[in-house]
Amino acid sequence: MTKFIDLTLSGVSIGAVYAAVALALVLIWRATRIVNFAQGAMLMVTTFIASAVITSTGSYVAGFAVAVVAGLVFGAVVERVLIRPVESAPPLNAVIVTLGLYTVLIAVAGMIWGDTPRSFPAAFSLRGYRVGGTDLLFAPNDTFTVLVVVGMAVALALLFKGTSVGLQMRASAFAPEMARMLGVKVGRFLTLGWALAAVAGAVAGVLVAPSTFLGPNSFDPILISGFVAAVLGGLDSPPGAVIGGLLLGLALSYVSGYEGSALAPLAALVILLLVLLLRPSGLFSATKERRV
Amino acid sequence: MRAAARFTLLRSLGLIVFTGLILFLVTETVSDYRNSQVATGAYFFAVLAGLTMLAGVGGRISLGHGAFMAVGAYTALLLIGKENWALAPAVAAAAAAAAVVGLPVGLATTRLQGPYLAGATLAFAIGLPALGDKFSGLFGGENGLAVNPPTPPSWLGSNFSLFRWEAWIACLGALIVLFVLYNLVHSWLGRSLRAARDDAIAASLCGLGVGRLQTTAFVVSAACAGLGGALLGAVVQQLATPSAFGITLSLYLLAGVVVGGLGSLGGAIWGAALLVLLPNWSNDLANSFSLSTNVRNNLPLAIYGAALIGLMLVWPGGIQGGLGALRRAIFARLRGRRRASAALPATEAASDQIATDRPV
Q1: Which of B122, B312, B316 has the CB atom closest to A224's CB atom?
Q2: pTM metric for this prediction
């Protein structure tokens, strides 16, 4: 029973990180219909920047804030410089551009910071809560992780549903021509979508770095799990991304806890195929009319 | 109809005889090192040609073809190493094994589109190696499997280069793939696949079984990947390890197909050349400067990524598409000059444009 509780708690904690990465992918998919394979590398770069700031100032908060701002700028620049030119090309072209960006970022990070992973400080203690004489697999830092991700998801939901900016973002994503005719600066809101996505990614990077360590390739598995989570939830749905992330985190935690971590990727495949067989566009997809 | 079919067969035969001759001359003249590059390019071509049929002609993306290469490589090495099979039947069995694995994956993903299809095939590429870990006794775990290199037959002379022999085998495999795919793409299957790609609903209203067509394309491309993987494992590297077939391989295969030019077998040639030469050139370039270790180790990767981005920005239709546009521009200019002197009608240029716009 203790093991079950442990696995559940650690599943929620890692699931929150998957959810944050999935949110980033969903934001970009909604804005520009592109799966951003460079997301993992982008959040790696912002986390390295955070690490440098924390080392030089000694302040975790400053590092976190700089990572968020760096993500905002980075996402916007990538959209304007690299993605805008391929927006009208076949969809696979944009995918290859993000792959190329992934490769370049990994290489550049290796040049600047070296290929050996380094440690990254946690915001709070990594020692599990003590309940009835045993340490739980859930530390104050995990509470922080879950709270930050939930807070971010709520903030994004409020932004999309409750503000004029959110309304214009949704309009630019779903009906760009109509939005443009009504005076929405569509391009600007697509850039904003990328910038917000990069912020979500940057937050995920800072949260997960204490447990994965920080190296050029450290976040590749996180990106892939985030992608699977986003596909599970449905790429058009931010709540779907959060729930998909938590579901995947829990499932992988149970499978690796009871059957060994080697089987975890296989379990992810089985879950994904089962969900997609029943709902080909993810759990939270809206039913779309077909046009002939 | 029948005459046209026979014509395709003749054309494809001519194509492979011509390509085979060129490859023979190339392998005769170049060094051992270049021959091993030719062999590498040949197995990449086999995989990319299958993938370009799936992605370009069929409009279906796959991020899982590295895993099919792994299936092919491990099948071939197991049959040769443990069962003492000859090379040719082992490679054929490897292609068949990849097709058998591809069938359920293709069936399970028929309802999926775009990124959902990409996600499912990606999960497949990551999930399959887990099986290899589970049965590490059979598959050799992290160290993988190894076999002896293929020996050139004695009638070629005693000092016939091993690398040239490997290049011959790999090129033969690539030519077989080229022959089969050329005929498939120009058959009813290719036409139906294109129809299903452009408008699935209209195609099914015309009586085409869209799901079955796309599954067929998936299985054929999986078999090509299996054959390519078998050539990699049994002939060129004589080794198959799990790390050689990671997710990076699947992603680079996709990059090769798109950068080469999606949907044309010619594009697969450019893609294969790119996958072989680009890492090589960028390595040479990185080593020609005196740089710190960190920079030197990572510069090839940076050049590779920048080249992918640059090619996509400059030539959205891939290398094949870019060369086609270049050729059309040159012809149009030549024709324009002639027209200026002889006042020819412009319709010829326009019809040429339409005819060449279609991918192979």
Answers
A1: B122
A2: 0.85
